[in-house]
């Protein structure tokens, strides 16, 4: 048996141990971060100048009714006891009942979250489809007019307020040109005839082969998703350019050119492939940002997602819904953030040490 073969089992055990340690660290960090998120959200909700009891019974309720409600919902207890009770319920998915809908908050979140998920997913696909090629092109043409143009387009995406872009998009593409449908998720002609299955309307229309509804749904989602995709593209193109510039300056690229490999193969087959590992993290973080940052977009386009749900709840002092939606959005962001770190370690064995 050769020396290499004798060390092979030890190397595999070492890699397995490193992977297990990374998974355990992932679970521990996720648990601690989630508990911290619940604590911060709860105490911020308590210091806000909104009395949740008055929001429930009304500000004209008699003092006896207010006192009875305060005792019933545990608001007469010390804050630390209120937090422990809330934490116990939150860990089981119980965020209380919404004042607006009169349904459990978790049930409302399950109803509205697919709309946000679909919008952010389409936006991320658009951002990746345009951001990566533009970033690669800017890196290859470094210092040229193309490079400067890509950087300016990205800078505009960073600088422009998303709600202003949304209003401008509605004015131009909906009101003036009529290329897309207006606010909302689906036209009124299909609202009562289309039957959702998964909550992702585009997928549901494909499953049911309802191409007329698919066209209408696509016409509603394409404008807000394109705006979110533009913001995502600005970030992804900038990071792709940075990663590609680093890879194109490596010695293996010089060696590949000396061997006579085509420039296209060097760029797309070697440099971009080596940039794929950090790009996974960038795309995951961009996706998480769209999921938790689409509040203004959903408000402008009347998109019935968790962002609009959170806005309406906050305007009506529905604190159970506000806290539940905030915790859910934060949990998604934390989960995708930690998942991107885990994928980074899985794809790049060097980071496990």
TrEMBL record:
Q: Where are the transmembrane segments?
A: 20-44, 119-140, 152-175, 217-236, 276-301, 321-344
Going by the UniProt record, its keywords in alphabetical order are: Cell membrane, Membrane, Transmembrane, Transmembrane helix, Transport
Q: Give this protein's Gene Ontology molecular function annotations.
A: dipeptide transmembrane transporter activity
Give the chief site where it resides: membrane
Report the locations given in the UniProt record.
Cell membrane
Q: Where is the ABC transmembrane type-1 domain?
A: 113-340
Q: Name one GO cellular component term.
A: plasma membrane
The family classification in the record reads: Belongs to the binding-protein-dependent transport system permease family.
**Record-given protein name:** Peptide ABC transporter permease
């Amino acid at each position: 048996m050769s020396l290499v073969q004798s060390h092979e089992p030890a190397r595999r055990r070492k890699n397995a141990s490193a992977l297990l340690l990374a998974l355990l660290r992932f679970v521990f960090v996720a648990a601690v971060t989630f508990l911290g998120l619940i604590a911060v959200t709860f105490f911020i909700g308590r210091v806000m100048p909104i009395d949740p009891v008055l929001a429930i019974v009304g500000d004209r309720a008699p003092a006896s009714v207010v006192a009875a409600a305060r005792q019933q919902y545990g608001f007469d207890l010390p804050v630390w006891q209120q937090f422990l009770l809330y934490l116990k319920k939150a860990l089981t998915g119980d965020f209380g009942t919404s004042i607006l809908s009169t349904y459990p908050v978790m049930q409302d979140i399950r109803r509205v979250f697919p709309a946000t998920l679909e919008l952010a997913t389409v936006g991320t696909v658009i951002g990746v489809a345009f951001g990566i090629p533009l970033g690669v092109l800017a890196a290859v043409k470094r210092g040229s007019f193309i490079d400067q143009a890509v950087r300016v387009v990205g800078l505009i995406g960073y600088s422009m307020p998303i709600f202003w872009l949304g209003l401008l998009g509605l004015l131009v593409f909906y009101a003036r040109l009529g290329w897309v449908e207006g606010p909302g998720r689906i036209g009124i002609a299909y609202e009562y005839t289309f039957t959702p299955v998964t909550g992702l309307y585009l997928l549901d229309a494909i499953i049911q082969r309802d191409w007329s509804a698919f066209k209408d749904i696509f016409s509603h989602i394409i404008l807000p998703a394109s705006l979110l995709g533009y913001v995502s593209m600005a970030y992804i193109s900038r990071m792709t350019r940075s990663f590609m510039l680093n890879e194109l300056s490596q010695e293996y690229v010089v060696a590949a050119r000396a061997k006579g490999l085509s420039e296209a193969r060097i760029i797309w087959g070697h440099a971009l492939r080596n940039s794929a590992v950090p790009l996974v993290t960038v795309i995951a973080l961009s996706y998480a940002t769209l999921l938790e940052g689409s509040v203004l977009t959903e408000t402008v386009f009347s998109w019935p997602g968790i962002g609009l749900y959170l806005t309406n709840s906050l305007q009506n002092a529905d604190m159970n819904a506000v806290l539940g939606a905030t915790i859910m959005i934060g949990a998604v962001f934390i989960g995708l953030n930690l998942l991107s770190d885990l994928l980074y370690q899985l794809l790049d064995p060097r980071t496990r040490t």
